Amino acid sequence: MEIANAFALLTNFVIIPSITYGAQLSLSALGVTIVFGILRFANFSHGELMSFGAMVTILITSLFQTKGINIFPIPTALLALPIGIIATIAIALLADQLIFRFYRKNRSKPIIFTMASLGLMFFMAGLIRIIIGPNEYSFADGARFLISFRDFKAITGWDQGIAIKQTQLITLVVTLIVVINLLWFIYKTRWGKAMRAYSDNEDLALLSGINPERVVLLAWIIAGALACVAGTLYSLDKIYKPFIFTQITLPVFAATIIGGIGQPIGAVLGGFVVAFSEVAVTYSFKKFLTYLAPTNWEPQGLVQLISTDYKYAVSYIILIVVLLLRPTGIIPGKTT
Amino acid sequence: MTKHVGVVYFITSIALLAVGALQSWNIALSIFNLCIISAVMALGLNIQWGYAGLFNVGIMGFTALGALTAVVVSMPKVQRAWVVASNGLILSFLSFIAVVISIVLARRLLPLTSSLRLPVTIGLLIAGYLLIGNFFLPATKQIEAIDPVISGYLGGMGLPILLSWPIAGIVTAVAGWLIGKVSLGLRGDYFAIATLGISDIIIAIIKYEEWLSRGVRNVTGIPRPVPYEIDLLDLSWFVSLTHFLGVTDINNASSIFVKLCYGVLFFVVLAIILWLSERALKSPWGRMMRAIRDNRDAAEAMGKDVKARYLQVFILGCAICGIAGAMLATLEGQFTPTSYIPLRFTFLIWVMVILGGSGNNWGAVLGGVIIWFLWVEVEPVGNWFVSIITASLPKTSFITTHLIAGTSYTRYLLMGIILLSVMRFAPRGLIPER
Fold first, then answer.
1. How far is B294 from chain A (nearest CA, A)?
2. Exposure string over B318-351, b if 16+ CB within 10 A, otherwise e
3. Residue at which a domain ends, from B154, B181, B211
4. Cross-chain Cβ contact A119/B187 below 8 Å
5. B159 and B143 belong to one structural domain
6. Helix axis angle, A46-67 relative to A212-237, nearest 10°?
7. Which pairs count as long-range contacts for B82-91, CB under 8 Å and 24+ apart, including other chains?
8. What is the pLDDT of residue B55?
9. Of A166-180, B233-247, B399-413, which one has max mean pLDDT?
């Protein structure tokens, strides 16, 4: 009984939140890692790309809501998501044509690309805030909970419950579908192989007749689609606020680097590593240990490694430690 | 300076004068003061990026550290906090030193090949963390419990605020040394990401260690190096000066006078740093730095100690950004950790340096002035523009309110466009490097 309660507590407050957050980070890190693999620069504007995708989805969702179109009990946002994806891909391709192609032609250093992505970040941050404003938006409709805290307790009779939000399940299902399809595309199809070849050795890939512009085009299409899905899932599960996406760039970079830059599977792993450590390190294990420990052995303090204030800082610390100790990441990645 | 440079500076001063004439002299002067501070920050970054090619996107952290130094140096001491917490703080400091020494000793004693090295280090780190926390957390709790509304922190040293500017330089130089030691082994994008992460860690610490900085509750009323407006009104020489100049609005005059004082102080600092930077750039050291920037391997082959030079230039740049941070806290008279966001304090400085011309100090200063001017003035201009295009619409219509709410964000849009177009069409900036 005590063990069951401890398990429920941990699942509800650590495992489920970090799996959902990890899935969202994984999707974002996949986009960053693919752009890094093909175009060889750290795309600082990826957070704004996510924000843009989520914004378009929100606008379309509210249009659908006023028109009364919905797919209850599933959130209307999923219906609007494809339009958001198309818009995000369009803006990613536009940015590539207007900005990055020039430097690609000139064979500029990676640092110049990164700096151009800073410019793009500024531009998109402004554009998004002008279109939708700087405020919060909550646009999740449909059924709220798959199983609520109270229902779970009533069914099992435990002291602690597990609540599963519908958005959390959607996040997981969508992530699973996207990641499996993407990995299949990258590792099994002709164009995926071309992309990997290009990422491994540009010159050899050119010699074997791979069209570089086509590969770059594909990379942006994938990155844009992933950014929109990740941004929408994140804001569906939590809340949409333009500022959050400026902030999320670092955890995403952390996930990318931990996984090994340019490594799709690594990026997925990295996302979960970052999410689990962010949640676990700042979680107070007092209640959990109270359930497990014999009576009168309850821990005195909060049994918390770092105060919750430092939730974000945890991912930065992991980032720095990984950069210093093992800059190639879990799966050895590229170096510039 | 060439004729070209003179023209650009002339246009900039005309723009500032226009603000003075059209809006108010008060606004023009406050823009001017922040322009100077921005120019100092841009100089700091220019030393790192322009001289040596270091892609540092952690400027925000060093600026905030400088501002924190201003608080710690100048604010009055909170006596009661020291009384209740000094034992805890001293004990935690001693245990910190003990932990550092024991880790160094353990790593010295164990042979390099020993498999125990890493486990022992990690074990000592964890033990040390718990030991320090044991003394430190109760002490900080006690400090934060004292008058949380007005103090709740240790306070400062009560020294003159002007002293904090050089001290901020020293503090950030030490921080820069530590951070540089750790991260300068990384190249290019990796260094950028690392510095961005470190600056965010610095901000997180400043935000949440309330015993040190009051955190999100802000520190207000930082002492001033210049007189208060109210006090000026009681001074007979000031009153007679305004009579002599024929000024009618004496309140406005006193506020302009205070801003002028700040302006002079900042200008002196800028002039000193600019002069030193120019001297450094033209010296053999400056030529060596540019050689390292243009071809690191060749410079290394010529026997230059590239790593040490990188560290040196990184420390110098950070120190200058720290000084700018202290100046900023002095000007604002308050320290608000939440206002430190990368867009404003890191990436904006990058736009300044790229626009001005990386590698050229006069360019960095000019970039700082122009970009800050635009950053502030875009909003009124945008509002004016919106009021023209929406003149025919009713005041409360959805489009009007939406557009007015959006004007303050056109500055982001504009900065993006400036950065992208300068990089594309004039990659060497307004005043190219000679």
1. 12
2. bbbbbbbbbbbbbbbeebebeebbbbebbbbbbb
3. B154
4. no
5. no
6. 60
7. B82/B154, B84/B142, B84/B143, B84/B146, B85/B139, B85/B140, B85/B142, B85/B143, B85/B154, B85/B211, B87/B139, B88/B135, B88/B136, B88/B138, B88/B139, B88/B142, B89/B135, B89/B136, B89/B139, B91/B135
8. 93
9. A166-180
Interface pTM, i.e. ipTM: 0.90
Please state, in angstroms and rounded to a whole number, the distance separating the CA atoms of residues B62 and B318.
Answer: 6
Q: How many CB atoms lie within 10 A of CB A78?
A: 17
B432 falls within a domain: no
- pLDDT attached to residue A336: 47
Dihedral sign, Cα of residue B280, residue A113, residue A123, residue A174: negative
Which B positions 353-382 lie with beta carbon below 8 A of chain A?
354
| Pairs of CB atoms within 8 A across A/B | 138
| CATH pick for A2-325 out of 1.10.3470, 2.60.40, 1.10.10, 2.40.50 | 1.10.3470
Q: Do B43 and B150 fall into the same domain?
A: no
Which residues of chain B does A129 touch, with a Cβ-Cβ cutoff of 8 Å? Answer: 406, 409, 412
Place of tokens 């208060």: B228
Overall number of domains in chain B:
2
pLDDT at residue B323 greater than cutoff 90:
yes
User: Are the beta carbons of A110 and B342 separated by less than 8 Å?
Assistant: no
Cα nearest neighbour of B202 on chain A: A313
The string of pLDDT tens digits covering residues B160-201 is 999 999 999 999 999 999 999 988 988 888 899 999 999 999
Residues listed for chain B: 434
Residue ending a domain, among B96, B124, B154, is B154
Domain holding B25: CATH number? 1.10.3470
Instruction: Name the region of B75 (left: φ>0; alpha: ψ -120 to 50; beta: rest).
Output: beta
Q: Which of A42, A111, A126 sits opposite B193 (nearest CB)?
A: A42
Check: CB of residue B284 under 8 Å from CB of residue B133. no
Q: Which residue of A has its CA nearest to B215?
A: A309
B413 and B356 co-located in one domain: yes
Q: Which domain holds residue B103?
A: 78-154
Q: Are residues B159 and B149 in the same domain?
A: no
Distance CA B290, CA B53 (A): 8
Tell me the domain boundaries of chain A: 2-325
- Among the partner-chain residues A123, A134, A313, the one whose CB lies closest to the CB of B200 is A313
Identify which of B189, B409, B423 has the shortest CB distance to residue A129: B409
With respect to residue B69, please indicate whether it lies within any of the assigned structural domains: yes
Say if B434 falls within a structural domain. Answer: no
Residues (pLDDT < 70) of chain A are 1, 295-302, 333-336
Q: What is the pLDDT of residues A72-94, one digit of tens each?
A: 788 888 999 999 999 999 999 99
- Do residue B142 and residue B31 come from a single domain? no
Alpha-carbon distance B160 to B55, whole Å?
35
C-beta of residue A254 within 8 angstroms of C-beta of residue A315: yes
Q: Is the dihedral of CA B70, B71, B77, B82 positive or negative?
A: negative
Average pLDDT, chain B: 89
Among candidate residues A57, A49, A62, the one with its CA nearest the CA of residue A83: A57
- Report pLDDT digits (tens) over A160-215: 778 888 889 999 999 999 999 999 999 999 999 999 999 888 889 889 889 999 99
Q: Residue B33 and residue B269: Cα distance in Å, rounded?
A: 12
Q: Is residue B430 part of a domain?
A: no
The token pair at B54 is 């270091």
Q: How many CA atoms lie within 13 A of A217 on its CB side?
A: 6
Do residue B106 and residue B130 come from a single domain?
A: yes
B283 shares a domain with B175: yes
